Every structure is written in structure tokens, then in C-alpha cells.
Amino acid sequence: MSWPKGFIYTPNSISEDIHPNLLDHIFTSKDPKDCDVICPCIEEKRVHRDIQIRKITKNMKCKGSKPHPLANLDQYGVFAKKNIDSHTVLGEYVGQWFMGKKTVQREGTYSWTLSINGCELFLYSGIYANETTFINDFRSLADQSNCVADWVVHRGKYYFCYISSKKILKGEEILVDYGVSWAQLFMLNQIKKVFYAQIQLEKSKIGS
């Protein structure tokens, strides 16, 4: 499958308004033993070899036989090519690092607001991204997520990654929990879209 349009692939995150030296200091672990910890995905600047992006099509199902709600919306998902054990690092979530919250946020999508070592950071992957960007929220797709977002130590530095929280079977979509704030914002936007569609329908009736 070709890389999704509108996104620039990058294996590493990019520092936007934070000096690289400061960012390096923020991500440094205070435990000397962490310098010996190696994460293969981060070491090789790649995601897990057994995950892949797929475009969501009308033939895809979720929760058994239900049609995938993202079908025909030009959306993507990430799926397991083989069985993946629990507690497996799936890859670093990459993007652009900003200090604090930024206005580049698009309706809460492609982004995380994170805290580490006393600093609040904003990570946005709506432009620069890798495969993890397209891991969807579990709501409406499954009863619960099968991966979590958390910090992973590699050679004494912290990296924000997705990690499997249970065994993921071959062909299964990888899903994470975007958080309560995202869910509330998502529902609000859905209500706005329905309301706008109703207004347009009423206008068309009046016009005819």
C-alpha cells in the first residue's frame, strides 16, 4: 500500500519550538541503569515488523459482523500481520514536539499532550508521521483497546511509544485509548456534523 497522502514519513520526531539540547535533557532518565536498556524498534528507527497500515474498506468488519464505521471515509488503520505478544513495543509515536499545548491541534486528532520530568509537551503527527499515527481509538470498534501509549526507555532516554496490552492476533486491528478528553471532543464534533447536516437538509427542502 502507498503511504497516505498529506503525511510526510519520518522515523524520528522533530523539535519545533524547543531547542534540541533542552529536549534531550527533558527526555534523559535519572536512573543510570537505563543507559543499558535497548529497545529494538527505537534502535533500528522503525516500527514493529509485524504491523502494517491498511486503508479501511467497506468489506472490513468490527465487533464481529458489524461494518467498520470508518469505511468509505478515506481513513486508515493499523493491523497485525502476525500474532503479537502482550507487552510488545509496537513503535515510537513520532511527530513534531512543541512546548505545551499548541493551536496546530486539529480537533484532537493526531496528537498527544504529555508530561515528563515536570514538563508539559505537545506531540503533533498530522504532518510528519509513521505507522503508529494511524492506530485508531477503540471506541465504536472494540470493547477495549489492545495497546497503550506510554514512555519507553532506550539507552537512557525516554521515547513515547505504543505497546501491546494483550496478545494481538493476526489480522486484528491495533487500537488504543485516545483518552476521555478526545472522546468528549469527538462526540461533540459528531453532534455538530449531524446538526449541520439537518440544517442543510431543511434549507434544501425550503429551496425546492
Short description:
This protein has helices at 20-26, 40-43, 180-207, and strands spanning 8-9, 14-15, 51-55, 61-62, 66-67, 76-80, 89-92, 96-99, 111-116, 119-124, 128-129, 136-137, 147-154, 157-164, 175-176. It is of the alpha/beta class.
Could you describe the 3D structure shown?
There is one protein chain. With 208 residues, the protein is an alpha/beta fold. It folds into two domains: 8-177, SET domain (Beta-clip-like, Beta Complex); 180-208. It has three helices and 15 strands. It has helices spanning 20-26, 40-43, 180-207, and strands at residues 8-9, 14-15, 51-55, 61-62, 66-67, 76-80, 89-92, 96-99, 111-116, 119-124, 128-129, 136-137, 147-154, 157-164, 175-176. The strands form six sheets. A four-stranded mixed β-sheet has the order 2-8-10-9, with helices on one face. The radius of gyration is 19 Å and the shape is globular.
